[in-house]
Amino acid sequence: MSKLTRETLNKIKQEHAKPRNNWIKVGMSTCGIAAGADIVLETIKQEVKKRNLAVTVGQCGCAGKCYAEPLVEVCIDGVPQVIYGNVDKKSAIEIIERHVANKKLLNDHIYNVKGK
Amino acid sequence: MSGKNDKKIILVCDTDGKQREADYADMITSVLSEEKLDGQVQVIRVAELGIYGQGVIVKILPENIIYKISDETAIAELVSEVIKKNKTLKESVLEDNPKQLKIVLRNCGIIDPENIDDYIALDGYQALSRVIFDSSPEEVIAQLKISGLRGRGGGGFPTATKWNFARRTEADQKYIICNADEGDPGAYMDRSVLEGDPHSVIEGMIIGGFAIGADKGYFYIRAEYPLAIERVQKAIEQAREYGLLGENILGSDFNFDLDIRLGAGAFVCGEETALIASIEGKRGCPTPRPPYPSIKGLWGKPTVINNVETLANIAVILLKGAKWFAAIGSATSKGTKVFALTGKVKNSGLIEVPMGITIREIVYEIGGGVFEDKKLKAVQTGGPSGGVIPKEFLDTPVDYENLQKLGSIMGSGGMIVLDEDDCMVDIAKFYLRFCVDESCGKCAPCRIGGFQMLNYLKDISRGKASQGDLLKLENICNSVKKASLCGLGQTAPNPILSTLKYFRVEYDQHINDHRCAAKKCTDLLRFVISKEKCVSCGMCSRDCPVNAIPKNENKEYIINQELCIKCGKCFDVCKFDAVIRE
């Protein structure tokens, strides 16, 4: 990486600010990891690889709902963007099968909806 | 978002979280299938929609409208009008009125904390670039002054004033320190910010360095936060590679660099003079102020010490404008405050609210109410330096002055909800024991006074104290408050004084009647087994660590009071509520 100037800083901003679709984010702060987020992240990565899905899997910090950790945010074309809470290995696989592959929401795990 | 999908989705949410006989999602599904609409509409049971105590609600997507559903008629109406005819039922619409406002936590849970580009994409380092090229140190401080930002570590000292002191003091070297030695029991605001958005704090520090004329900064993070340390370290390295730290930042002639220093787990090192001593490699003991660190701090040089949350506010204020920030909050306290909401609350977690919000709104509308729907007794704020706010004052707007008036403090952001099962003497004892453990021992009032106060509290909780002892306790509290060297000692009596102020009755009960109404102080309790309820299962006998409950198959079990150590094991394991505390 080269040292930034004001112009190159703005260039990075513009390049990365483009809205993206088809991603999954797992809350990987201490609260999430304590509740098993590392296992959930690993499971999701494996499932995505196994099924050869065009989905980016990433991590983020604490979204505040520590009581519902591990939290997994899913943004897939054609399905409302939601945050799933209390996710474990089993429901992580369900998210991939039902939400990502079949474009249907999961019961009982949604903790926030971010519109369409 | 791409992908046309006009299919409706009905999200069903029970905001009371109770067990209901009828499943509303199933009921809606069956009405839909009667109408032969089940193929076109998806019904999903959700855990939460951010609304509490409103019974069953539904959110219709993609319209994003919330309705309250009280009975079957409402379901029929929902299906026939909203789903079939695509109408809006104006009378039943429930307004979603979010109580939280995320400024400090703006990126937490959104960006990847280990990727600097994610932060840059969301206006990261824009404030820095503006400050360096379009502004001056004086202007930055003037902006902060207009914003009204005050220290979020608990004291509430105006940040602009602190920076200005350091700016005006002439020296060949100045420092800025980020205090991330978060130690209050139950508080983890700083940890979450550092783990979720480390660059926002780094940017705040670089701007601080620019404003006061420092070219060196330190993160002082407690060693118990390994993940926060790792992420801050990565963030510093990435910023350095991008030339956002180091020499000639963004091609300008401004130099600034950062390093991490670890705290070894001493609570007192969160006090600024002790923190400085710790960074200098000395024993973490406080020294008298003045001189204040902004005049004479680290290695005798002017040093600004700011809390994590304060620093995370800086970039946003400069980017969105001081006036925007000053419009949020109450008359004396501007902006937002992050709280770690814990204790007997349904939704414990990290929240950020505008100053001036009431405690009731925080507990009931964000926290979802008291755990198991018990009665709220009080809310503790400010950790071991703070106090309790009884339920009578739940409608007090939260700001620095109001909480102080009530005998508590804003503190760094711990907020612990206490219910009817919490004993106030026990709470005071818990916090005081913490301070006694963490006292550095340098000054006598804190070292000896703390020990004596704790002894009196122990006696009270055992029912072995007199009213005279209570007066002596109060006396020592006031002396320790006045005579201690640093904030730890000066505020250590606060939990006692504030519980005494509002819950003296509980102290009196312990002293006069040898009774603990909340059944927390085990020395005042007796565990007995109810003849009527006992089914002779033998669980208590098996689990008793001192064999105080002899095996007595097919007959009632009795606790031998002479052997009983009141550990409460039998009470916990009995599934028939046969073990009674009295």
Describe the protein's architecture and organization.
The complex is a heterodimer of chains A (116) and B (582). Chain A is of the alpha+beta class. Chain A has a single domain, classed as Glutaredoxin (3-Layer(aba) Sandwich). Chain A contains 4 helices and 5 strands; from the N terminus they run H-E-H-H-E-E-E-H-E. A 5-stranded mixed beta sheet of chain A has the order 2-1-3-4-5, with helices on one face. Chain A is globular. The model of chain A has no long low-confidence stretch (mean pLDDT 91). Chain B has 582 residues and is α/β, with parallel strands linked by helices. Chain B is built from 21 helices and 15 strands. In chain B, a hairpin with a 5-residue loop joins strand 11 and strand 12. The longest helix of chain B is centred in the C-terminal third of the chain and has 20 residues, at 494-513. The mean pLDDT of chain B is 92. The interface between A and B is large, with 51 and 64 residues.
Q: Could you name the CATH homologous superfamily of the largest domain in chain B? A: NADH-ubiquinone oxidoreductase 51kDa subunit
Main beta-sheet annotation of chain B: 5 strands, mixed
What do we call the CATH topology of chain A? Glutaredoxin
Radius of gyration of chain B, in Å, reads: 28 Å
